[in-house]
Specification:
Blueprint (H helix, E strand, L loop, with lengths): L5 H7 L11 H11 L9 H9 L4 H14 L4 H11 L3 H21 L18 H16 L3 H14 L7 H11 L3 H10 L6 H13 L3 H14 L3 H10 L3 H5 L11 H10 L1 H4 L3 H12 L2
Helix pairs in contact: 2-7, 3-4, 4-5, 5-6, 6-7, 7-8, 8-9, 9-10, 9-11, 10-11, 11-12, 13-17
């Protein structure tokens, strides 16, 4: 299998089809925040949960409309409706931009953008839909290779929420690696106490490989191998172009931390970065094999 086909194959082999393309992280946070009904739907979020589990787009759209009837300015519902009713990335980008701009204007009027709140947005329940919408916007920007815009949005999200409950720092680390920006990548790494997990160590190793600093690249690869014992197997699958097993093991319900599933997820979410880097995986396999 060609690495460029990796993401499409992963979607095709997913165990549960998705009616709309809302990010797993965002969807889980949204449902965790609002899942509280057992019988008949009563609130906008009751209807949004029904939309998420719908078997057809028409049915999902019907439930989202119900949610918007109850709360016309519900940001999560507006994002879902945009995804359900839009067929082009250009139009969807414009809709996301409008949703986030309108939300920011209203939240500013409501006092949420006061200085005392900047940095702690996720701790304020009312700010979460806005942050989820921005995350969706970033995901689409990276899909469209609009990396400078995506970088600006990521940096803005981390200013608003330093705890980074949605994992934006991992997207940003891959963007810095994409631009070969060592200074910003290391600054981000240090900001989060040099967090030694798969989503940081893999792009850092790849970054230094791109910079031609093989020693530092291997140093981070060794750290990755220490925290994620599936690293050699993953690199072997990628280098050999045989990733069917990895794809079949992807779950729509998340992944185990520091596992082959997380490595697969990292590649799937950042295919724009990893697809041209087959030589890195060939090199990595040879270095790991000698260990």
């Amino acid at each position: 299998m060609n690495i460029i086909d990796f993401q499409q194959s992963a979607n095709k082999n997913s165990k549960q089809p998705k009616i709309f393309d809302i990010s797993d992280e965002v969807l889980q946070q949204m449902l965790d925040d609002y899942r509280d009904y057992e019988d008949e739907p009563e609130t906008a979020y009751d209807y949004l949960e029904l939309a998420e589990t719908s078997e057809t787009k028409a049915e999902a759209k019907k439930f989202v409309k119900k949610a918007l009837e109850l709360e016309p300015d519900n940001i999560d519902a507006l994002v879902m409706m945009a995804q359900l009713s839009t067929t082009s990335n250009e139009t969807l980008l414009k809709k996301y931009q409008k949703i986030t701009d309108d939300a920011k204007k209203q939240m500013t009027a409501d006092g949420f953008f006061e200085k005392k709140n900047i940095g702690a947005f996720w701790d304020i329940f009312e700010t979460r839909p806005y942050m989820r919408a921005k995350y969706e916007y970033i995901s689409l920007l990276t899909d469209c290779l609009m990396m400078s815009k995506a970088m600006t949005e990521c940096e803005d999200m981390l200013k608003l929420c330093e705890n980074d409950n949605l994992g934006v720092r991992y997207k940003l680390m891959h963007i810095y690696a994409y631009f070969e920006n060592e200074e910003k990548a290391i600054k981000l790494f240090k900001k989060y106490d040099e967090e030694e997990g798969t989503m940081f160590l893999l792009p850092l190793s790849a970054l230094y490989y791109k910079l031609g600093n093989f020693k530092k690249s291997f140093d981070y690869l060794k750290k990755l191998n220490q925290v994620n014992r599936d690293t050699f197997d993953f690199f072997s699958y990628v280098a050999e172009g045989d990733m069917d097993e990895l794809i079949s093991n992807l779950s729509p319900y998340g992944y185990r931390a520091d596992s082959i599933e997380e490595l697969t997820q990292a590649m799937s979410e950042n295919i724009h970065f990893y697809s041209p880097m087959m030589s890195y995986f060939d090199w990595g396999v040879s270095k790991l094999a000698k260990m």
